[in-house]
Amino acid sequence: MMKLSEFARRCGGKMVGDDGEILGFATDSREVKPGFLFIAIQGERVDGHDYVRLALENGAVGCLVERRIGITEIVVDSVEKALARFGRSVRDEFSGPVVGITGSNGKTTTKEFCAAALSPLGPVLKNVGNKNTQYTSPLLWEGLKPETASVVVEMGMRGFGQIAHLVEIARPTIAVVTVIGTAHIEKVGSREGILRAKSEIFAGLPEGGVGVVWREDDFYAELVANCPARCVSFGTSPEADVRVLGYRSDDWGLCTVRLGYAGDEAEVELPTFGRHQAMNAACAVLVAVEARVNFSDAVAALAGADLPGMRLEIVRREGVTVLVDTYNASPDSTVAALEALAQGPALGRRIAILGEMKELGDFTERGHRLVGSALARANVDLAMLTGGPTRFIYDEARAAGMKAEQLVNLAELDLGAVRSFLEGSVDGDTVLIKGSRALGLESVLEGWRA
What we know:
With 450 residues, the chain is an alpha/beta fold. It is built from 14 helices and 22 strands. The protein folds into three domains: 2-76, Udp-n-acetylmuramoylalanyl-d-glutamate--2,6- Diaminopimelate Ligase, Chain: A, domain 1, CATH 3.40.1390.10; 83-304, Mur-like, catalytic domain (UDP-N-acetylmuramoyl-L-alanine:D-glutamate ligase), CATH 3.40.1190.10; 313-445, Protein-Tyrosine Phosphatase, Chain A, CATH 3.90.190.
């Protein structure tokens, strides 16, 4: 645990009021628990300073603020800069491997696989959930302990310069780009823009550092060119350093993956499914062997990965299997989810509920049409599409051969209609629910056949 006074010293702030132990952090006053430090963020629409009193009522030990409020507080010039100073201060005290992870898809799952694969070295410090922004990522360093053997830092991208900022704090020795896809393409204009933004993760690699990329990425050559350090790869091609040699779907939520490295092979059962997860696992094993974990030990450790919810999370109700994949949605992740639905052991119908994908900008029509083609290829028996742009999914699926009676298209989000559609599922059916987080599609499961 850290005291307010030490946090103030490390972040360059002025402490006012009584000292106390920090038991956690929150950027939302509603999430404050007794002993938490409340981070007051001045946003575009909401000013966290307006909620410091509520945070204190909820038990905050103090608040990090940019202006005096007259409470127990740490006053700084800029919350963002203060958090960066704090993170760098603690990072300076750690000499073990630090893994930075970014990419359009698979960051959080790959982070968890990396943490598992690195565990043979000893305790691993990692981001909680997907706390990967300039406000939340630096705070993971508060958890550094003398016994920590490695650190895994997920880095989110909402525009140019954000990953570079996070790299300055974490200074990764191993830098991972899972894939250059289309998520958040609206923020940077094109996949080339995403390539540029994601490649910022390589800039801080030290001498002896290494970049890790997907061998079959459309931008593989560009990623290697953008990496000033040695670059290694994972994938299925013979040129990949860690190869996916086999994949078998054992059940919804379980699969067996066989990986190869430097002439050795090893197999492991993963607590998830989908061929894309085999790639995430291969990436993690490559990270681990670069950190000097034995290949077989790294593969075996994947079985203990603590994977996040709402990423093909399995819910079973009255014989119906529901695949909940609603944390977020991009064309790439939606296509991967549809492929997983097609590959799994369904006893009855395969049904998809697909919501619109947001933050695609000029890629909106094309991205939804790509999903429409994938929907037709997935041999789905019935699909509900909800949200304006899903009309492009409908048109493309029809053009690819799906019948009109197989498709229900709602121009606007209607959770009641989605719930009614879900009620039509019967024993043996498998239902995929996929859509952008803002839609809240997972809420239709609340109380459903519970």
